[in-house]
Design brief:
The protein has about 160 residues and is an alpha+beta fold. About 20% of the residues lie in helices and about 25% in strands. It is built from 3 helices and 5 strands; from the N terminus they run αβαββββα.
Length: about 160
């Protein structure tokens, strides 16, 4: 009986270990339900038909907010305690003509079209000198304001 129990425990531990290796997949951003952004036709669709097919855009262009719409989708995978890794990213850029509401261009960008930018981890020091912990705790001791008297004129500072 003990051998049978140890086999059951070993099998259950193996099942738990195998289950822990499966990634947690998450999808953020625009998710196509009825129509895909690639279904938008250049020269045929207008702003209204794009809104009807895809809904409101994820974001618009900073400088040409009326003419360029973006639909963003991102899929990430995370294993146990690791940071999430982006496995798929799709950015669909829909550009409208300047003269009208017709679609002028549809461009789809993937993860390979982007660039990885390493953020700088150093901090910019602030001006002034560095205070020790004691100077920070005791810095205002003795700097308190004197009690008000009858001779004080409102709006003027008293000499300390």
């Amino acid at each position: 009986m003990p051998r049978f129990t140890s086999l059951i425990i070993a099998a259950s531990l193996a099942a738990v270990a195998a289950g822990a290796c499966a990634p947690v997949v998450a999808t953020q951003g625009f998710q196509a339900v009825d129509a895909k952004p690639q279904d938008v036709e250049v020269g045929v669709d207008t702003r209204e038909t794009v809104l009807a097919k895809l809904g409101t855009p994820s974001t618009t262009s900073t400088f040409e907010s009326d003419n360029v719409w973006y639909y963003l989708t991102q899929t990430t995978q995370r294993y146990t305690y690791n940071k999430p890794q982006v496995s798929q990213r799709t950015v669909t850029e829909i550009t409208f003509a300047d003269s009208g509401d017709k679609v002028a261009n549809v461009r789809t960008l993937g993860l390979e079209d982007g660039r990885q930018i390493a953020m700088e981890r150093r901090e910019t020091p602030t001006r002034g000198r560095q205070l020790t912990i004691l100077e920070q705790l005791l810095g205002n001791v003795g700097r308190g304001q004197l009690p008000r008297t009858e001779d004080d004129v409102p709006g003027q500072r008293r000499p300390d």
